[in-house]
Write a structure and sequence with these properties.
Structural class of chain A: alpha/beta
Number of helices of chain A: 12
Oligomer: homodimer
Strand order of the largest sheet of chain A: 2-1-3-4-5-11
Number of domains of chain A: 3
Helix content of chain A: 40-55%
Order of helices and strands of chain A: HHHEHHEHEHEEHEHEHEHEEHEE
Distance between the termini of chain A: 83 Å
Radius of gyration of chain A: 25 Å
Largest sheet of chain A: 6 strands, parallel
Mean pLDDT of chain A: 93
CATH architecture of the largest domain in chain A: 3-Layer(aba) Sandwich
Low-confidence stretches of chain A: none
CATH class of the largest domain in chain A: Alpha Beta
Amino acid sequence: MARLAEVSTSTASLVFSGKGPVADATRTRVLAAAESLGYGGPDPVAASLRTGRSGVVAVIFDSSIQETLHDPYQVLVLDGAASVFDELGLGMLIIGRVRDESERALAQLSAAPIDAAMFFSCGQGRRSVVDSLAARQIPLVGLGAPRDPRIVQCDIDSRVAMRLVAEHVAGLGHQRVGEVTLPDLQAPHTAARHAALVDVFGSDLVTAEATLSGVESGEQAARALLADPVHRPTAILAHSDLLAVGVMQAAESLGLRVPEDLSVTGFDGVDLPWWPTPLTTVAQPGSDKGARAARLVRDGLAGEPGRDVVLQAHLVVGATTAPPAV
Amino acid sequence: MARLAEVSTSTASLVFSGKGPVADATRTRVLAAAESLGYGGPDPVAASLRTGRSGVVAVIFDSSIQETLHDPYQVLVLDGAASVFDELGLGMLIIGRVRDESERALAQLSAAPIDAAMFFSCGQGRRSVVDSLAARQIPLVGLGAPRDPRIVQCDIDSRVAMRLVAEHVAGLGHQRVGEVTLPDLQAPHTAARHAALVDVFGSDLVTAEATLSGVESGEQAARALLADPVHRPTAILAHSDLLAVGVMQAAESLGLRVPEDLSVTGFDGVDLPWWPTPLTTVAQPGSDKGARAARLVRDGLAGEPGRDVVLQAHLVVGATTAPPAV
DNA sequence: CTGTTAGCGCTTTCAC
DNA sequence: GTGAAAGCGCTAACAG
């Protein structure tokens, strides 16, 4: 034990934590001894065992990092959370592919030294993962999913938000509309957004499910929607901005102009500096969402109950929507 | 202690770890007791203290998550690393903003329960961070930076790689060329790529430093380079694909055609599904780089020395380079 | 196959 | 202002 070199362990502990009153002379002596022994401060694991805190929060992804962080919106949210965790001195432990490899993820999660967990991605997820975490009696926060009474949520109301664009598009006179959803129609977000469109367009709605939130994926889904020239929709509403870009590319490759021949809308309101046309979309406060969720984690850690947070989204009208051609 | 409920602690430990031989009857009994007590398996922190392993690897970013993961190339590398860590059952603890807030990052790092660390972003970084980690005697792996004898590296030879594009451009007949670098000219990568261009173009090279690896940032830097119509370069070589897109946007807004009036090249070779023109660039194996780096971590953890890995990059000729107009 | 024992390295009362 | 002692919950020898 590095401390025996000079003084008692308790004194050394006080020196490193800066908590108790220590004579300057002693402090110097301890530091010098540590230096010469190559001792780099208290062992975090041992400290954690004693204090019951590891200073680590699990951040859980449904899919791979690549798939999740391909979308700038997710990066924005993650960054918002990271800023707050940084301030709080909490580290983020990334746990990915929870959907695909539930076994492995479960093992990983139960072996992880964490004080709380944040469900970052959108799926409804495996029940077992939530159960396992809940058994640890640690604060659980989600960004709208998975829905579970043991998880405190921070999210927009997706149904209300999607309705904003839906009504904008309906107000322009569109009736035959297409929808490009994110993967997993069961996921709360996707289901809610879909429901909003059904509310507004009823049975005139045609739906295509994308395989992920990416441009290529949106293009592919849009092709399916636009395949039949007779019943072609006059507007396509995508569940993410990236998907919307894909839709516009599909339109272009079919010789359709946006917005003259086809109106297109996105969701999220991210910066697309490489895209020439301002997109009509619903902007949600990504960074804020991450930050607020992180504060819910903090509150949970402090023993405060923590209530669901509902954020506001708003319609952004760009240049990709117009009345339908007659 | 949950275990006292039925049997001895050691037997319970064997049940949960699946290591030793346990009678089926006993196993069942232990599991049942755990169930009824709401015991969710061994405490990871206590187990770590005993075994000396936490199963966590620190992944260190120079800047914010937002800034770093804005670039799809970085996401790709991170995903490559994540796949391997997943397989190994290791978690990734993200430590960001090491450049800006060295104090905080240092505190965070020394309090983090980690078995190894991977320097993910490119800067040369603060010496103190490396020192602090090195004092813990854990394996240290980098993706080319920071350069330090205690860090095992996995990277391409940036100078050789950049020379590939440089010679391609020089071979087309360009002489007055501009360069848009990533932030921080001191960073090993940036310095090496710059050196390659100096090798090839000498004093005909004009350099602009971008503020980060993004489209807007590339556009801004390119504007500076293209401002003077008389000494305007006929080609601009960017240090990342995203910067190259920004350069092309600057060119377009100035009424210059690519590649007729201006040749443009990138670096990394990422997918740009939203960009219409195939970019001339240097492709580096991003996912593989992350994966190989992760394996270096594994080797270090296994006590094997570990030697630097040098990966190969290759030239990809797209449609953004052509001989200069006379 | 199962129980006993001895720490892992630290923080935290509590005396002095 | 400093030291002694207890114990966080677990795993790994070793004995039975």
